[in-house]
Amino acid sequence: MMNTNCTRFQDLRVSRTMRLPLMTLLLAAFAAVSSSGGNLITNSQFATATGFSPDLDFEGSSDLSNWSTIGSSTSALDCVVNPSTSVGSNGLCGSFAFSPTLALYNPPTSTPTKGNYVLIDADSADEVALQQKLTGLTVGTTYQVRFYQAAGEQTGFGTAGNNASVQWQVCFETTAAAACNQANTPGTNVKDSAVMTFPENDGLLSATSWQVQTVTFKATAATQYLSFFALGPSGAPPMALLTDVEMTALPEPGTLAMFGMGAAMFLGAYRVRRVRK
Fold it and tell me: What's the structural domain count of the chain?
């Protein structure tokens, strides 16, 4: 009986001895995983802009806070839209756009997060890249870019019976001049979203619903530029829509492994203690 009691005492003592380092390991891993979160994109829902009435054509300007346009064209359409107030004769892009009565066959009346969205003409001849400069990146860290996309056809355009296709190209470059453009091909710093296909001229069917997209990049410099470029056919104006852009650092595989190992050891010690009781 004495030996059995001693053994139980030693098991309990070992369990208590292991508890502190195991908890320390778990807390350290949890802190590392938690610190990797946090959206690095500023004005991710395009809520801050100068000149809303209620919408804003921002091409070639700095009116959309923290975002800029690269490769502007006088005939390109790019604007930020407030879907809850975009009504009346000014059209989706307000009175500032070259086509003040711009409308889609079936424009979205809201976004998944109830914010604003950006609309950019995907005509390959008249496109611009929407870009944000990011600083304080950690070289070698993998970052995930998450966003919502949709698409629609401008009223008065498209051919009945034909389909339109459009997608976003996302680029993560070390210089602003290296923004996305029609000549890029997918690779380490260039990723394409899923293709959105819909009838060109078919009323309410000439649009897509909102779709969530994710791409990942590895930082090669402390300062880089995240760009979005609407890819579409030449001579036709399918419109690409973008909202709720997020960019977060992903935890390193070693951190996840440490968290899993600590959790497994802690649960193992707890189960052994319960069985021996």
Answer: 2
